[in-house]
Design goal:
The complex is a heterodimer of chains A (323) and B (342). Chain A is 78% helix and 1% strand. Chain A contains 14 helices and two strands; from the N terminus they run ααααββαααααααααα. Classes of the chains: A mainly alpha (323), B mainly alpha (342).
């Protein structure tokens, strides 16, 4: 088991290195750079810009710059953001933590809703309520993340009472610990709901489909025959057996979760990785672009690894089969 | 006549949407970039049948809007009703890009304006922009998805057919592309291109960028189908008759993968439409004054628009029916072409 996971982790690391090379080659194509924008500023002389170019080594060949960047990764700096005038690493950690808070909350809530709704819907297969749930879910599936985020913002603005952007109130620094947590939670409500609603329909559909398949299995018939019924049948017997594909789904859904989160963060100005990438692109801040894209890749790979580990814990067959 | 099937209905609706995009100039009451600075943020028009003096009209009509000085609020000028006419004369356009005309499907007489779903900050008719936007967003999505699936079909076919090192290299590349969440990858690729672009170049570039990002998943699926198809007896037979690699691939192996490819196409189009809308929304795709469904929504990001002019959000809802139709198409294609169920 550990050997399997270690191999997977090593593969992921290799993939990360490859992605970083790819991103660096992309940024090589970028027309103009951060300093080219400054050239328009009459307050900065051309010679000062040339000094800056030399200091940041912007004119070196791409291999040299990549090597210098790898060295700074080893120092935990991930290059230097010209826009924020500080190393990229700490900046990334700050923003990645916010993205993590948003995505983990939304995923947890979405699963807590999806399993009961899916189980309930599967138990009432073919009934009117099941069909109505299906129609509502399809409608929700057709509402893309961008529209959901804008729509929720619209409702929040018109109803009032909820903050419509950012992660903290202006008076955040004056608050005590408990009040700070409350403040962040209130700000988290809208983006987390939008993200949760984006991923919910797919989850419910899968939970329902796998449970329906399991509920037809002979061992469920047997459990029914000896008098197990209702919730106990669904949650203790069927769900346990259906866990396998659902955990795989958890791993597979990380990619779309991160993409949806990026849109929602940008629309609701949640200070995560998404808005950071957009500012970096506008400012041509190359190291920041590479850093953010790499951080999101990291999230995706770690999410997949976690799902693999969970699968191993949940399914005895995987444990005995893997070398 | 047999009852129309679900796939048939979805197909007809889809054809209708793309046809109305071609006829946008005729269907839309106004030119999409015609500004009415005096009528900025006009609310959706109120269609009436009964006028101020209580008389019933057979034709629905509207009143002209008069701005209250210094505000974006409007009063109705009830002195004269403007009935909605069919085929009035208006801005010149070309039907399907070919036949010049200046008739529109419906409209009202000047100086009144018919803003069925309101106007934006320059007083441009949102409905006209929405209809003209159908030439950008759904078309860009379809083209980008076609590009992605074509690349996927070729690369996946080659990888599965030749196997060995080619397969290894191509599939590692696909893994690389799929390791980055697609919106982040899309933006990273977009970052490698100039920020400010001519609308036409932007349209083509957006298609190219989305297409290059989306090929990996179709390629993997096509590869798996090709892997099993190349061991079939008829492939062996074709080879023994002396067919070349290219011919076997084209005539005997790839047709097997077309079902998967078409299903993937239908699945990818909504994603690609959303990708274009998202890019344009962030100001990195198709730019003003051309109406894309994405850049039309960009105005909603400002707080005062969100708070006071809710109808600016309405164009976004056009995505919902299109997505639903494509989901239905995907479902039908999957059942018929991949599962081979009747």
């Amino acid at each position: 088991m550990t050997r399997y996971l270690v191999t997977r982790a090593l593969q992921s690391c290799l993939l990360l290195v490859a992605v970083s090379v790819l991103l660096f080659l992309f940024t090589e194509l970028v027309p103009g750079d951060f300093l080219a924008e400054l050239r328009l500023n009459p307050g900065i002389s051309a010679s000062a810009l040339d000094t800056l170019r030399e200091r940041f080594g912007l004119d070196d060949p791409v291999a040299v710059r990549y090597w210098r960047w790898i060295q700074s990764v080893a120092r935990g700096e991930f290059g230097f953001s010209l826009l924020y005038e500080r190393p990229v690493g700490p900046l990334l950690r700050e923003r990645a933590a916010n993205t993590l808070l948003l995505t983990v909350t939304a995923t947890a809530v979405a699963w807590c809703l999806a399993v009961p709704i899916g189980a309930w819907s599967a138990g009432r297969r073919g009934h009117l309520t099941d069909r109505v749930t299906g129609v509502v879910l399809t409608a929700l599936l057709a509402l893309p993340d961008l529209l959901l985020a804008l729509g929720l913002l619209l409702i929040a603005v018109r109803v009032g009472g909820l903050p419509t952007g950012g992660m903290t109130s202006p008076r955040y620094s004056t608050l005590g610990f408990a009040q700070r947590a409350e403040d962040v939670l209130i700000h988290l409500f809208l983006p987390a709901s939008a993200l949760c609603l984006t991923i919910l329909p797919t989850l419910v559909r899968h939970v329902r489909a796998t449970l329906i398949e399991t509920l037809d299995a002979p061992f469920i018939q047997a459990a029914r025959a000896i008098g197990v019924g209702g919730r106990r049948l669904v949650y203790r017997h069927a769900l346990r057996a259906a866990a396998n594909p659902l955990i795989s789904l958890l791993g597979l859904s990380v990619a779309s979760l991160l993409s949806a989160s990026m849109t929602i963060e940008a629309v609701m100005s949640w200070p995560g990785l998404g808005p950071l990438l957009l500012t970096a692109i506008q400012a041509r801040d190359v190291h920041l672009i590479v850093g953010v894209a790499l951080a999101s890749t990291c999230f995706l790979l770690v999410g997949n690894l976690l799902a693999d580990g969970l699968l191993y814990l949940a399914d005895p067959r995987v444990r005995t089969e893997s070398p | 006549m047999s009852r129309p099937t679900r796939g048939g209905i979805a197909g007809m609706l889809l054809a209708g949407i793309y046809a109305s995009a071609a006829l946008a100039g005729f269907l839309a009451p106004y030119d999409p970039i015609e500004q009415n600075r005096g009528l900025a943020f006009a609310p959706p028009a109120r269609l009436r049948l009964v006028d101020a003096s209580g008389r019933l009209h057979l034709r629905p009509f509207v009143y002209a809007l008069v701005p209250r000085p210094g505000t974006f609020d409007y009063d109705e000028d009830v002195s004269r009703p403007y009935p909605i006419r069919l085929f009035p004369e208006g801005a010149a356009h070309r039907i399907a890009g070919l036949i010049p005309s200046n008739h529109h499907l419906f409209g009202v007489d000047d100086p009144a304006r018919l803003f069925l779903i309101g106007s934006d900050e320059y007083g441009r008719d949102l409905l006209s922009r929405l209809i003209h936007g159908a030439r950008i967003s759904p078309v860009a999505g379809l083209l980008a998805a076609s590009l992605a699936v074509s690349v996927g079909l070729v690369l996946g076919g080659v990888a599965g057919f030749y196997g060995g090192v080619t397969d290894q290299v191509l599939m590692r590349c696909a893994e690389l592309v799929m390791a980055v969440p697609w919106l982040y990858l899309l933006l990273a690729v977009r970052a490698a291109l100039p920020l400010a672009l001519e609308p036409r170049d932007a349209f083509l570039l957006v298609i190219a960028v989305i297409g290059t990002v989306g090929w990996a998943r179709p390629a993997r699926l096509v590869r798996s189908v090709v892997l099993s198809a190349r061991t079939r007896d008829y492939v062996l037979a074709a080879r023994s008759f002396g067919a070349s690699d290219a011919r076997v691939l084209r005539r005997h192996v790839l047709p097997e993968a077309l079902g998967v490819a078409f299903t993937q196409l239908a699945l990818l189009v909504p994603q690609c439409i959303l990708a274009e809308v998202t890019l344009s929304f962030f100001g990195l795709g198709v730019g003003e004054p051309l109406p894309s469904w994405g850049n039309m929504l960009a105005g909603v990001q400002r707080f005062h628009v969100l708070a006071s002019y809710w109808w600016m959000f309405l164009p976004g809802l056009a995505l919902v029916p299109i997505f639903l139709i494509y989901y239905a198409v995907t479902d039908v294609l999957h059942r018929h072409l991949v599962l081979r169920a009747p």
